[in-house]
Specification:
This protein is α+β, with helices and mostly antiparallel strands and 413 residues long. It has a single domain, classed as Cysteine proteinases (Cathepsin B, Chain A), CATH 3.90.70.10. It is 26% helix and 16% strand. The chain is built from 10 helices and 14 strands. Strands 1, 4, 7, 8, 9, 10, 11, 12, 13 and 14 form a 10-stranded mixed sheet that branches. The longest helix has 26 residues, at 16-41. The chain is globular, with a radius of gyration of 23 Å. It binds 2-acetamido-2-deoxy-beta-D-glucopyranose (3 copies). Residues 188, 242-243, 245, 355, 363-364, 380-381, 383, 386-387 line the site of one 2-acetamido-2-deoxy-beta-D-glucopyranose. Residues 98-350 form the Peptidase C1A papain C-terminal domain. It comes from Bathycoccus prasinos. Residues 1-39 form the signal peptide. One of its GO terms (molecular function) is cysteine-type peptidase activity.
Length: 413
Amino acid sequence: MPFTHYRALKAMPTMTLALLFLFATCSFLSLFLVESVDARTDESFLKIKTDDDFSTREGALKLTKAGHVNEYRVLRGHDKKQKIISTTPDAYVSSEDLPESFTWSNVSGHNFLSKSLNQHIPQYCGSCWAHGAMSALADRIQIASGKKRMQDVNLAIQFILNCGTEVAGSCHGGSHTGAYQFVHDVGFVPYDTCLSYEACSNESIEGSCGYVTDRYKCNAINTCRTCSTFSQLGGFCAPLATFPNATVKEYGTISGEEAIMKELYARGPVAAGIDADGLRSYTKGIYTDTPSYEINHIVSIVGWGVEKKTNTKYWIVRNSWGQYWGEMGFFRIVRGKKSLGIEDEVAWATPGRWTGMKHDDFANFPCFEDGANCQEEDFLPDVKDMAAEYVDPSVKGIPFGKVHSDEKQKEKQ
Ligand SMILES: *[C@@H]1O[C@H](CO)[C@@H](O)[C@H](O)[C@H]1NC(C)=O
Ligand SMILES: *[C@@H]1O[C@H](CO)[C@@H](O)[C@H](O)[C@H]1NC(C)=O
Ligand SMILES: *[C@@H]1O[C@H](CO)[C@@H](O)[C@H](O)[C@H]1NC(C)=O
């Protein structure tokens, strides 16, 4: 069955020998694979994990009905589920304001969304909670920056895996609100151009994370780094003390169809809990089942709509399983029915300040290639003067969704 994928290759006659060789190697390797798969599904794997520091401290790992690790875990360090200062959208968005359909991927022809991600490569990692939370936050920075922004923002999820393991989570699960609390409390999350996603946290023994003690601990080089040249030429990697970053100002939770629509329309995408077991073999269309569920995965809701033919209301949701999954990394699911729990555990966050995306607004402190001029903490510029500051739309009482839709109308006139 798995070999049907290779049908195209088989058609090439010169490849036949190579394929035979590949087949032989695969069968040989699969002996080992089967063994390691057994080790993972068997109780002993979980026992090892439950004996770990992190697991006993944070409670045992749970499996979903389909036998996956439940990736939604609220860690003990996550003691503040919300931090709210501004008026929330339910106070200034009325039901009549809400359009019949709306998505941040197409506001009058403009896409505000940050790039699609894959939490599972280079190896499996249960960091959905960080992906859902940071994707929604990055979207909100792009929305607040307006259509004239000159670059996209992507936030360093690896930093949260390296430094947020007590509050936010790890490759063995975490929470969207925990990720927001962590970024709020620590005061920044770097942009991902100074720390790539590696799908590892210090307790993970998967793939290339395997058994390397302290490689993913929280320190300066695991926050933001640069590498100067090849080591044979005397090169080194060094941490940077100042770098492009964003902050979280406020965060909180909501539930229910209308509250989610208001938050989404007023301020941008939200991170939502869901039962991933219903999604594993989803391919396309509107998921309409309403089985019993448990929240074990986090995704981000970016919009909604109605399918005219069947009069079915749906959410438009971004997953973090790669663009080859579902509708180019997205899925649609029936709205207003709590399908797979999608309307129950929804989190939002607003950005505080972020390094500007225009080269001419001087927000970025320019570092040399080897970072030599970005080593000292003393020279840190005053964040207040340098970064763009978020203005909550509640100040004007006009939702961002409406503002951005109206801009286009004005351009047309
Ligand atoms: C985007 O929205 C506009 C209306 O604002 C619509 O005309 C267009 O078809 C939409 N594009 C896609 C790809 O859905
Ligand atoms: C992972 O890091 C945390 C926080 O630094 C530490 O307490 C824990 O012991 C580490 N766990 C492993 C398995 O290394
Ligand atoms: C975060 O970005 C701001 C604005 O660019 C900058 O002033 C500040 O130094 C940065 N913080 C860190 C820790 O690099």
